[in-house]
Write a structure and sequence with these properties.
Blueprint: H1 6-23, H2 27-35, E1 42-47, H3 56-67, E2 71-74, H4 76-85, H5 92-102, E3 105-109, H6 113-123, H7 126-129, E4 132-137, H8 146-149, H9 151-158, E5 165-167, H10 176-183, H11 207-221, H12 226-237, H13 242-257, E6 262-266, E7 269-273, H14 278-281, H15 287-304, H16 308-317
Parallel strand pairs: 1-2, 1-3, 3-4, 4-5
Antiparallel strand pairs: 6-7
Helix pairs in contact: 1-12, 1-15, 4-13, 11-13, 11-15, 12-13
């Protein structure tokens, strides 16, 4: 493949040079250069029943995509498919916990035994409980069940998106204006961790900021493998902690689940690239990131077009 070609190394160096332009200013100024002045979109993790038999989750996703410009939604199974294809060693429960921790809100359609178990498991976590918004079927509202007397009461007491919603699952969209009103609330760009050392790299990026920087890198130099993305992140942002480096593969998987990035198999490798900006363009807050990534993309392409294999691949994929 072309990743050992001298011109690809030149493209990488060009990208690192462009990313380095901002990092020597003060942290707040650097973030504005990367992300603009608006808060990044909120990320909503939606849990629901088996899509072969339960269709309400898809209806909710389409409603949010149509009626909110500040929310991005994903399902755990989409991220899991990417983890499996990249041969990373992680179990599904650990991935789901990580995704829930990453998200701004966790929307759970309690419509199966599995989703009832998810509600119980997430409600047991002090941090996750605060971001849960369960939706339950209206006929069961007054039942003295384990769900109603256990997790539901806990969520009602502590979740910032509570209380839980009871609605008719046969007309699920009737509850969506209430859902949007609760979760689509503008918030300050400043994140709580700025004063501690839990952020990523020299500029103490938040998890969400790191996710969007990974998207920027993939747009600029893709199609690319995850190990190259990780190397660029480490070099550009001074990221050394193993736990943070391990997160990068998960963030790449999440970018695929959020449909900002696509993936394909080529010569027994999984490659990541951006072929469609529609998800990013739907959110006004990502406009600075799109402009920056396209500028970096053009600079990288000035090197990549001299690689014959890349040109053939590029024309076939229309990346």
């Amino acid at each position: 493949m072309w990743f050992n070609h001298p011109k690809f190394e030149s493209a990488k160096k060009e990208l690192v040079k462009q990313l380095d332009l901002f990092k020597y200013s003060n942290p707040a100024s650097a973030r504005r250069q990367y992300f603009g002045r608006e808060p990044l979109p909120k990320i909503i993790f939606i849990c629901g029943g088996d899509p072969l038999h339960c269709f309400n989750r898809e209806k909710i996703e389409k409603y949010i995509n149509k009626h909110s410009k500040n929310l991005l939604t994903f399902r755990a199974e989409y991220a899991w498919d990417t983890i499996v294809s990249s041969d990373k060693k992680m179990n599904a429960l650990s991935l789901e916990d990580w995704l829930a921790e990453f998200s701004d809100a966790v929307l759970i359609l309690v419509e199966s035994f599995g989703t009832a178990a998810e509600l119980g498991a997430f409600a047991m976590s002090n941090s996750l409980r605060k971001k849960l918004l369960p939706i339950l079927d209206k006929p069961f509202e007054n039942h003295q069940s384990f769900i109603n007397t256990g997790p539901v009461r806990w969520v009602n007491k502590e979740s910032k998106f509570g209380p839980v919603l009871y609605t008719d699952f046969n007309s699920i969209l009737t509850c969506m204006p209430d859902v949007i009103e609760r979760v689509d609330v503008r918030r300050s760009k400043q994140y709580n961790h700025r004063n501690d050392s839990s952020g990523y790299g020299e500029l103490n990026f938040s998890k969400k900021e790191m996710l969007f920087l990974i998207v920027l890198i993939i747009i600029a130099v893709g199609p690319v493998t995850d190990d190259i993305v990780v190397d660029i992140c480490k070099e550009c942002f001074g990221i050394k902690a193993k736990s943070h480096i391990d997160d990068f593969s998960l963030m790449i998987s999440l970018s695929v689940a959020l449909q900002m990035i696509s993936k394909l198999s080529y010569k027994e490798r999984v490659l990541y690239y951006c072929s469609d900006y529609s998800v990013l363009k739907r959110n006004a807050s990502t406009e600075p990131l799109i402009r920056l990534s396209q500028s970096m993309r053009s600079r990288c392409l000035s090197h990549l077009v001299y690689i014959d294999e890349y040109k053939v691949f590029f024309e076939a994929m229309k990346c």
